[in-house]
Design goal:
about 220 residues; alpha+beta; 5-stranded antiparallel β-sheet; 3 helices; about 20% helix
């Protein structure tokens, strides 16, 4: 009976010495979470906001925030030649979308895109409309600044103000030509959190057993 107990004790000690522990997982990914307030196609220039769920600190320690944004635009260009001679060229609409945090830590602008070029040829005093031109764009950035990680951690939501700036790019020869645009634009985004997980209670227990084993095993070897 004593021999059997001794074998069990040796086996248990061997398990401890091997260190049956489960390493703490790192760089886990939570998300992506799509904003709860996408901005639908709206006449520019607009100002709005995007809201995202914050990272739950009960899961662990946040190490990186990945933000991805996608936008679209539709524009109609109108070109006027008020001169006494013909004009020709091309025109584009440019839309810049800026999304920012309270600490002004995010990249600006997040999105900057041009409509397809509209080529025109006008006689003196003529005007012309492009019809609807469309374009989409996307961007992504990763942030590890402590200020950003702090803003995105909490039990609620984080609100990021968003706005657009719109202008017309005109390349023209001859006449006296001007261009104007009417543009709608929309915006949405996702956030992905990278974090180091909090060890589970069972893992902590195994780590403690392993530490005890490291102390006990050398003592048993010296006695052997």
């Amino acid at each position: 009976m004593n021999r059997m107990l001794g074998l069990i004790s040796v086996f248990a000690l061997a398990v401890v010495c091997v260190g049956v522990t489960s390493p703490v997982q790192a760089d886990l990914i939570s998300g992506p979470f799509t904003t709860t307030t996408p901005i639908a196609d709206t006449l520019t220039d607009w100002a709005g906001s995007l809201s995202f769920p914050q990272f739950n600190s009960a899961l662990g320690t946040l190490t990186e925030v990945d933000l991805a944004f996608s936008g679209d635009m539709s524009t109609v260009l109108t070109i006027h030649n008020t001169g006494d001679s013909a004009s020709s060229g091309n025109a584009k609409t440019e839309v810049q979308m800026t999304i920012q945090d309270a600490g002004n830590n995010l990249s600006v602008p997040e999105l900057d895109f041009l409509s397809p070029a509209y080529a025109y040829s006008l006689g003196a005093g003529d005007s012309i409309s492009s019809g609807t031109l469309v374009k989409s764009s996307s961007s992504s950035n990763s942030y590890t600044l402590a200020a950003v990680l702090s803003e995105f951690t909490g039990p609620g939501t984080i609100v990021l103000p968003a706005s657009t700036f719109t202008q017309t790019d005109l390349s023209n020869t001859g006449g006296n030509t001007s261009a104007a645009q009417v543009t709608d634009a929309g915006l949405t985004g996702t956030v992905t959190y990278h974090y180091n997980a909090v060890p589970e209670p069972s893992t902590l227990a195994l780590l403690l057993i392993g530490a005890v084993g490291l102390l006990v095993c050398p003592w048993r070897r010296r006695r052997a």
